[in-house]
Amino acid sequence: MYLFGESEVQNYDILAIQESYINKHTDPLTTYSLALKGSFHILLQPTPKEEYKKRPRVCFYVNRGLDLATWEVQYHNRDLSTLILHTAAHGTIHIHNIYNLGVNSNEESIISALQTAMAPRAQLEQLLPPGTITYERVNAKSTIDLVWASHNLANRVVSCDTKLEWWYGADHVPISTQFDLTAIHVPPLVRKQWNATDWDLFLKLMDIYNWHPRELNDNEAINEAIHYLVETINQAAEQATPTK
């Protein structure tokens, strides 16, 4: 999928993908993108290899920068998955990724499953500007990909429109939706440059912090000594070891 190669995609918290490439040789079935460099959790409905013909048609990619404890996924069926996201100040958001074949398909419409998943929620608002072209093939143009939101969430929309610069001639045009919400991110990992440590200062600080071998008579004493040693090393490193 070409849009995964866009550097800006790495800054998105959530990607809702439909009809992604499915690897039929893995069990369960999987999907992936080398371009994303492992920076997203891939949420695809678990499906046995022998059920490839019933492979999932919706998938979420969740940025690894989001706190794992703040989201969860529900797989309703192969055409509907829901990502539940707990925000810092605006409650819980339910994001539904829906693949609907439409009225001309012999398969049952996914809308009924969506209604069950959303009950008793209602009163949704369409976020895309009227007349937005989201599907284009040869001479056919249409608006078949839609973005709906509850009234409260619609009031927090910053932008919702197609991303033509990410469109490389595929049938469906990518859509970018941004909300004024505060997701809970994992604190940035601080890495130390241990090879650049001022060891003279480090050892001096260890002495100042009064670290010395202690008499260890039981497990409690051992645990206390280890805890104190780790704390002392961390405090000394704060001053003697630069960060990357």
Automatic annotation (TrEMBL):
It holds the Pfam family Exo_endo_phos_2. Gene3D superfamilies: Endonuclease/exonuclease/phosphatase. Residues 123-175 form the Endonuclease/exonuclease/phosphatase domain. This is Endonuclease/exonuclease/phosphatase domain-containing protein. SUPFAM superfamilies: DNase I-like. GO terms for molecular function: catalytic activity. InterPro entries: Endo/exonu/phosph_ase_sf, Endo/exonuclease/phosphatase.
